[in-house]
Amino acid sequence: RLAAAREELGLPEGVTAPSLAVGGLAGVQAAGAARGGGCASSDLSAHANGQIPEEALCALRTAPGHRLRGDAAAAFDAMSRAYEQVFGTPLCVTDSYRPLADQIRLRATKPGLAAVPGTSRHGLGRAVDLCGGVEDFGTPQHEWVVQRAPLFGWFHPSWAGRGGSKPEPWHFEFAETATGAGAAPAVP
């Protein structure tokens, strides 16, 4: 069954898509926990949006210089490795975790694009902005990510879609897991 799903979705052999496995995102959580180094926790509820200590976040192995919460980082890296098998390069990231000071600066310089400071999913370590072709609607890269991101616990919010209220082809969010607080929010 897994092999048939992998073939239907165009995933190369050897790539693990956590939500295809029994238990859904449990595999992602386990992968995050296996990273160690203090970044494995996905429960960052003790920290306000944009005020998560660096040591509580996980570095993206496929996008140096970028960080997310543990489960999101593990899932992103799995998706990025699958993307690399198809396009020859890992996913290109322009933005990931966004500290509150950066949220304030972006809101001042790009008020039409940036969320109200303290409400961005970037500030929770649960959002990325992508490049390398993914930032444009209709490209093979964008279509691949939109179609396959849910296999890895990621999604393109409806507000960011082509007909959405704030079209942002580059913006993707990590879905809450069974231990999380709920459904996907409606802010970038």
Structure description:
By secondary structure, this protein is of the alpha+beta class. The protein has a single domain, classed as Muramoyl-pentapeptide Carboxypeptidase, domain 2 (2-Layer Sandwich), CATH 3.30.1380.10. Helices cover 29% and strands 10% of the residues. The chain is built from five helices and six strands. The chain has helices spanning 2-9, 26-34, 70-87, 100-109, 140-148; strands spanning 58-59, 67-68, 92-95, 127-131, 154-155, 171-174. The strands form two sheets. The chain has a four-stranded antiparallel beta sheet, with helices on one face. The longest helix has 18 residues, at 70-87. Mean pLDDT is 82; it is low at 8-12, 15-26, 28-38 and 178-188. Residues 66-175 form the D-alanyl-D-alanine carboxypeptidase-like core domain. This is D-alanyl-D-alanine carboxypeptidase. Keywords: Carboxypeptidase, Hydrolase, Protease. InterPro entries: VanY-like_core_dom, Zn_M74/Hedgehog-like.
SSE topology sketch:
Blueprint: H1 2-9, H2 26-34, E1 58-59, E2 67-68, H3 70-87, E3 92-95, H4 100-109, E4 127-131, H5 140-148, E5 154-155, E6 171-174
Antiparallel strand pairs: 1-2, 3-4, 4-6, 5-6
